[in-house]
Amino acid sequence: MLAKTDELFLFRESGGSRTAILENISIEVPERSFECIMGPSGSGKTTLLYLIAGLEPVSAGRVWLADEEIERLKETVRTRLRRTQVAFVFQYFHLLPNLTVRENIALPLWIRGQNRGWQEPATRWGERLGLGPRLDALPHELSGGERQRASIARAMVGEQPLILADEPTGNLSQKAGAEVMQILREAVDQEGRTVLLVTHNPRDAAHADRVRFLLDGQLADDPVLVGPGLTVDAVHQALAQLEI
Amino acid sequence: MRCTRPWRNWRSELGLASRLALRTFRARPGRTLLAILGIATGVAIAIGVLVLDHNTVEGMRQRRANDALPDLMLRAPEGGATIEQLRETDGISLAVEGFQEGAVLAADPDGGGNGVRLFAFEAGPLGQFGLVHLEEGRLIAGDGAAEVLLGVEMAHELGAGLGSTVWLSRPSRLGRKVCRDGVLVEAGEPVLDNPERQPFEVVGLLARTGIGRNAGGQVVIVDLPRGRELFAGSHPRSTFWARRDPLADNEALDASLAKVAALEVNRAALVGQAADERAFRTGVRVAGLFALVLGLFVIFHTLSMSLTERVTEVGTLHALGATRRQIARVFFTEAVVQSLAGGVLGITLGLAMAKGLLFLGLTTLGSGKHIELFVVPWPSVLALAAAGVGMALCGSVYPLLLMGGADPGAALRGDQEISAHRRSRGFAVFFAALVALMLPALYFILVPSVGVRSDRMAALILGAVAVLIGLVLLALVAPRILALAAARLVQPLLGLWPFAARLARSGMVHSPGRIGASASAIALVAAGFVGLRGLTDSLRGEIDTWAAEAVQHKVFVRGLPPTDFAELAKHLHGDEAVLGVEMGQAQINVPFLILGLDLDELAHYGPLADNPELLASMRTGRGMILSRRLAQDGLYETGDSIYLETSGSGVLPFPVAAVSDAYGYWANPDERMYGIVDRRHLERFFCIDTQMVDRVAVRMQGGEDVPRVVENLRAFYAARSRELPGPWRTDTGATIHALHRWDLERDFRLFDVLVVLSAGLAALGVLNGQLLATLERAKELGIARALGASRGQLAALVWIESGVLALLGGLLGIAVGAALVPLVVTSVQSLSGLDLVPQIRPLVLIQGLAGALLVGLVAAAYPVYRMGRMDTIRAVRTG
Fold this sequence. Notes:
The structure holds two protein chains of two kinds. Chain A is an alpha/beta fold. Chain A has helices at residues 45-52, 75-85, 101-111, 119-128, 144-157, 174-189, 202-205, 232-241; strands at 3-14, 17-29, 34-38, 60-65, 68-69, 86-89, 162-166, 194-199, 210-215, 218-219, 225-226. Helix content of chain A is 34%, strand content 26%. Chain B starts with a helix and ends with a helix. By secondary structure, chain B is α+β, with helices and mostly antiparallel strands. Chains A and B meet through helix 1, helix 2, strand 6 and helix 3 of A and helix 1, helix 8, helix 9 and helix 11 of B.
């Protein structure tokens, strides 16, 4: 199991009262799978991704990443684990504005301390994702779709087994969004990566092997949609069943 | 392998840091340049002041160079102070006893001899004075050995070298003349004998510097006991040489010594150490320090502000697996590069500034002094630059700490509200703590040679620290109040520019930290300006008060032919408007300027007219009237005794009879520290001619009437068949008063330069803040554009914010400055001995406010320009 949570809770203090953001979340993310968690805005999807990546501490429960219980790890060790096991694709891309596309793609390699030979993989992944002519451009010179492709190239270049994708099509056109989801699907099928996608878009969810639903911080036991061959209609029906 | 891994890690992590830092600089050249300029300007001003002061003092010292004498020379009266007592005196670090006399030096016991100047001093302590400069050989052993140090040229003339024996004796006739009751006579009975020559071994040759340059190099030095043997029976006059403790309060020390012995001060060793010079130099240096702190404030502000927009960047790096340490290294590398570049640029600009100011004749001892010398005191310059760079780096530590504690999840979500609030509070606390710790330490780097660390100085520094911290803390504890006050100030503009004013108001209410920091930067400069102007006005007031007593109603005439004073005075008194006539040239200069005046002339005005008992005591005794500045500077009070070494009557006490400026001031020399004695004492004890004069000051009743005085003088010389010759010149008290005021204005031009530079720095700080705020609000501005706001309306938003910030900072600054004036004036008063009364003119407050507004509006220009170029719609489109 590449990632796993067991009875996970997250509370936040606000104005003297405690609010549950996530409650009793137990999920498993097998290797080479495309997992999806759907839910409306504010349901805790992004927070769940950050907890799995070890970016935020849990209030209770346990999280495993590559067989390591991350809550037991020191901050530095946890960061190194994330560096080798997890790649991110964000809704707002989060490309560094001062770096060119090629440099943004190479960023995970730099973080690992790779001072030489980073151009080749960065260029290769950039070209593979259709960014060949744009590799020396700055992020603000790209369209939204191009930025997200650069963001995916950055996620691919480090060869981390787990890609956490946070609403990757949220800021894209339908066409660009479809392209991005196709790329993520290929990452699983052709590269052997694992993708954990959070989204509220049924079209995106239909690309997954399994879709679960998060409502007000709680994971619904039913329905759980299982692929392959999921359709957008099936996802819509599930959403209707949950009155989302 | 194990040994190489940490190195590899370090190198690869540095690679990430340097790459990201380099890209940041490349992508934001303007902002990088502004940050570097902030550090550079602060460092440049501080270094400029340091180098300027160093060259001023060294240049002036070289002009007056006299390394042949110690700091202090004393002669005690009979039964007076001993060398042991002198050594135990606070403020004296070294003292030696000895005497100087003419002697005869010969190469052999029977041959002809040469007249030489013999210095017989205790050999051990003398060697520690650093006045004995050897060309070859060693110092005298100091155990009473018959050893001698010889001027190098004289040794060549005699054919003597190291190890040679030379012969010394006292002269057969002691031909010293002394003044007895106004007549120069031979001292004692002439001794006509054949003194015994004594052999001395030459152990060292004196260079033509230090003591060796006395008497044209015809100098010998022997140990004191051997010297006394040579002069046995002739009772040479014993002298004490002393060196000041560098930390001594010079004026207090001189005053205490002058009360027990005749004191001669080596003025060359005291360049820039006179109380008023010290006060001026301290002021200049504090201004330099102030600029440095302001510069650091700017960089702190910039670094802290730039954190906001980079929070997402930090979150992204974190999510991609960068450790906190790696991220910290990225930002630290940026700070190091910026600080070092700022330091190097600061050194360059500082040296250029010092050179330029010297070229313009602006020095730390006043204006109009042209100094050719330009040397760089590199250790101090580098220490100061390092301190500036170090503080700038410290400034980057706080954002790093904050970043370390940042919640990456919140950063990625764009939830920056909490971190911005924490940032502004923490920034202010951190900066205040750093200033409190570093400012006094920096002060002493910047002010290494002032020499006084009295309680007064400590109070001044602590006061300055308190004011600076107070201003910064205001930004800490009351940012909300400041922001609300700023919003209140916008209120009247709502009618005029409804959109821009409303947006500006909401922006200020929601960015209290930025408003507080920017307003504080402007307030610091406004406070500095008002404080400085208050000081200048107080000094001007002091000159007015002094002039009213010392020079008003006087006509000064110089360049007269040698004229009998009594006759001239009698003639001038034929005019009923003439109250008295003061002679100008009867003076001696040890231990300070002492003027001999005719008491009959002084009896009609000033304290001698008001106090008959004083006049009587001056006539019967050796009373001295001290000028106010001398009395304050030397801590003299009525009744104290000042010892003068007379020419023939030994060391005599002259009691202080009164303190007044009513008599004796002369524009040449322009000396306000002097004493007045009855002219008969100068005749009797010093054989100074007080009969003939070439200059007089005429004290008149009811105003200065130059034509009337000139007419009287013409009549006087015409009656003696003599034309009133040229060149001669008259000055009125009013002219001299105006000249002093002009001098003051000129001297303070350096402060004007520093205030302008500091204002530039503050503008840089505000500019940085406004620019970052504009960039931060790109989305908001984009929405406004989308809703139909024109670029002009958005520009008005920045102008309004800057104007209101400046107004707020200006109001705060002039209030603090007005409160600062009494503190500054009191400190300068205690440092300089000047009789100052704090003064604050309303015009200065208006100027301070206007200057603050100007700074704010100038600072807004660039952000407005940048905003004009910004694609705000894109910011909306991309989120």
